[in-house]
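Reviewer comment 2.1 asked that we show a complete input and output for one of the modelled complexes. We chose the alpha-D-ribofuranose case, as it is the one discussed in the main text.
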Amino acid sequence: MKRILVLGSLNMDLVTNVHATPKVGETVLGNGFSEIPGGKGANQAVAIGKLGGAVSMIGRVGSDDFGSKLKEALESSGVDGSGVKSVESEPTGTALIMVNDDGDNSIVVIPGANFSMVPENVLSEDFDGQDILLAQLETPIETIEKAFAMAKEKGLMTVLNTAPARQLSRDLIANVDLLVPNETEFEVLTGYSAESEEDLQKGAAALFDTGVKELIITLGKDGALYMNHTGDKHHVHGYKVDAVDTTAAGDSFIGGLLTALSKGEGMASAMEFAMKVGAVTVTKHGAQSSLPTFGEIEKFEGVKRK
Ligand code: RIB
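Response of the prediction step:
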């Protein structure tokens, strides 16, 4: 089994449920309040750990109670969190999350200690014994750029989940083997919409021209679309489920995908597995609290949307 190194964020999610997300100037009542371990990096690492992958994480938390709880959450899910260090200068990252009656969320991330993960904190030895580097965009971009350059030099496969949306330098994109944006992120990255076939092709071609080898665009309820630089294409449909909370749906898809790839599965089969992981995740509340084990995925009998 291949070893996966996750570089990314750890946030304590501060979550409430609302009937509908408040408009500007409006006050609404929330139903309940929970502190749930989250952060896109930690969610993806925990997803891999719970599914039985071999995973380590590098990142930063504050020297506080949230930081300790987030590190415990990694360890209890089978993630080697020894590369997650505590800093005195900043509090642990937090995310304010509202989930509405449709299970859709609105999130404000306060990066805190995640932004203390500066380029100098990425060490050559972090990559020793690792096969795949996975990152998202909730840590400083210069750190991600350095890590991807080092990972390529050291022969790792590199995977970038482009969440939250932002533009990226050509140098970074050139060091990405597999890029995983959602539709909005694809549009921000390429300037092309993911809604028309023609635009999809043009946007993907622009990414392949800059060095990306493989691309998976996640399409929400419509599943996910794979394309590569040699012209292969594959669409995986989503499942019909009663979604109660879509938080970490994308993170769980990526965790499932990487776990399956690390166990030697082909891309089509890894995407099918990842789609099941995402489907189970949205039937439960919260980020890491909703991430399934391998056993849950084995038992899952979903019905496809198409
Ligand atoms: O992808 C979901 C995550 O985004 C949440 O857990 C929150 O912390 C933000 O990072």
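The two ends are 33 Å apart (CA to CA). We note this here for comparison with the apo prediction described in Section 3.2.
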